Amino acid sequence: IEAALTAGPLQGRHVLVTSGPTHEPIDPVRYIANRSSGAQGTAIAAALRDLGARVTFVTGPATVPPPAGVDLRRVETAREMLAAVEAALPADAAVFAAAVADWRVANAAGQKMKKDGSGQAPALEFAENPDILATVSRMGPGRPGLVVGFAAETEKVVDHATAKRARKGCDWIVANDVSPETGIMGGSENAVVLISERGAEHWPRMAKEAVAQRLARRIADQLIGQPVT
Ligand code: CTP
Ligand code: CA
User: Fold this and answer.
1) In this structure, is residue 78 part of a structural domain?
2) What is the 135 CA–ligand 2 centroid distance (Å)?
3) What's the number of domains the chain is made of?
4) pLDDT digits (tens, 9 = 90+) for 129-183
5) CATH number of the domain encompassing residue 7
6) Is residue 229 domain-resident?
7) 34, 129, 176, 190: the active-site residue
8) How many angstroms is it from 102 CA to the middle of ligand 2?
9) N or C: which end of the chain has fewer CB within 10 A?
10) Does 194 reside within a domain?
């Protein structure tokens, strides 16, 4: 009876969350990165855990600490993140909150690059990283029943995020407007639009933790009636 009283709506469910930036090496001591703190993904993982889910948390080198009570998988690069995600499946739902680097350095050096005295700077070449969200969204058997992506846009948020949802093949996109005038980027609040097959739903601006709790509730509602993976 105690267990039944305390069990959350995601009890018995496995949910995968990606979070943070990725680091793409230039040489053994240097890398390309982005400014993601990992705050929104961390809050989502914590909110899913609080509803009773077993959470696998695949995170790049974030600045905020990972939540307690999750199965933590630390990675550096986009390719490592994809491998960790594939190893963590199957899952009932997957939330891709990571700010994955779109490109890696194709001509990364095995040893520290040295100035050669010529005054010439090295030329970096780039290769496109695998799209983790699109890869999982387009899996046949083994695809999570609910796949949620994010989209950070600076203009035409609903249009761009709706197109992104179709392009990636995910079920939902959580879109946010990161144009400078919103002051959202790097802050503690978020104003998101949830894009689903039912269209665009504008959520009011709120703390990232509140966005996470609302999203976790929606995920729990969506999984009602779906067989357990
Ligand atoms: N994503 C991913 N793997 C990548 C790039 C992005 O899984 N290599 C995921 C992100 O975690 C996010 C979603 O895809 O959930 C959208 O990321 P975003 O950078 O907005 O989309 P891109 O397709 O990379 O398009 P853009 O050119 O706008 O950056
Ligand atoms: Ca991108």
Assistant:
1) yes
2) 14
3) 1
4) 999 999 999 999 999 999 999 998 989 999 999 999 999 999 999 999 888 777 7
5) 3.40.50.10300
6) no
7) 34
8) 5
9) N
10) yes
Is the distance from CB of 172 to CB of 145 less than 8 angstroms? no
Model pTM above 0.90: yes
**Ligand 1 lined by 128 (C-beta under 6 Å):** no
Instruction: Please give the ipTM for the structure prediction.
Output: 0.98
Q: Is the shortest distance between the CB of 172 and ligand 1 below 6 Å?
A: no
| Active-site residue, 34 included | yes
In this structure, which ligand is nearest to the CA of 175? Answer: 1
For 66-92, write each residue's pLDDT tens digit.
999 999 999 999 999 999 999 999 999
Look-up of token digits 């509730």: 217
Known binding residue 96? Answer is no
* 3-class DSSP state of 217: helix
Asked whether 149 lines ligand 1 (CB < 6 A), one says yes
* Residue 17 located in a structural domain: yes
Q: Domain range spanning residue 98?
A: 2-113+122-223
Do 135 and 82 form a contact (C-beta atoms < 8 A)? yes
Tokens 């058997």 belong to 141
Residues in the chain: 229
